[in-house]
Amino acid sequence: VFIAQSRASGSHRDVEDEELTRIFVMIPKSYTEEDLREKFKMYGDIEYCSIIKNKTTGESKGLGYVRYLKPSQAARAIEECDRSYRAILAEPKNKSSESFEHDYYSSNMRQEPRGNTLLFCGHPEFCGFEKNESRIQESVSKRLSVVSRLPFVQEQLFALFDLVPGLEYCDVQRDPHTSSGYAVIQYSTAASAIYAKNKLHGFEYPPGNRLTVIFLEDGSDSSE
């Protein structure tokens, strides 16, 4: 498995340098560049580390870059590092770094899926649901309906929704007349179902195919 090169990009080496070896992470503001290097050197050979600082005060913004020598090392760091670092591939340097930092911060603080990374709680202060009118008015239950343009594989869908504790069953249903996917998911508590819907509605599985996750009536008292 390897990452395909965009047709619009230059040479393979340019793409590798620019897009596949540099990761962007959220770190404690107390971290120095040496601390950052120490935490991430186990995943591969680091070319450099840098911490983003406030241009006026010189204080750390709690964000940093780690550049590896190989794309496989950057990929391993994203996959294996603690989820509290919120590690992702960095935008190429020729793009606006400030807008990238803003998008990254706002995305992670809202706890929404970014690309195909499920951002489960690494720090208590990042947990909790946004309070908005539509969610309060929505009829919640312990049961979810999952719809997709592509058919589901029972074991894979079960493994995906089992990331949220309390999964009771995953029932994939097939319509012989269409190729779309449909499944019913049930959790032991409404809280787990709410969390799963919040995380997985709009999640791309497989990449390029967004899941639609809605509540199904299960006969329980939704005010609970």
UniProtKB/TrEMBL annotation:
Q: Which Pfam families match?
A: RRM_1 (PF00076)
Q: Is this entry keyworded Repeat?
A: yes
PROSITE patterns per the UniProt record, alphabetical: RRM
Every copy of the RRM domain together lies at: 21-95
- Write down the SMART domains for this protein, in alphabetical order: RRM (SM00360)
List the InterPro entries hit by this protein, alphabetically: Nucleotide-bd_a/b_plait_sf, RBD_domain_sf, RBM45_RRM2, RBM45_RRM3, RRM_dom
> What domain of life does the UniProt record list for this protein's source?
Eukaryota
Keyword terms? Repeat, RNA-binding
Task: Supply one GO molecular-function term.
Answer: RNA binding
Query: Known PANTHER family for this protein?
Result: RNA BINDING PROTEIN
Q: What is this protein called?
A: RBM45 protein
This protein's species is: Urocolius indicus (Red-faced mousebird)
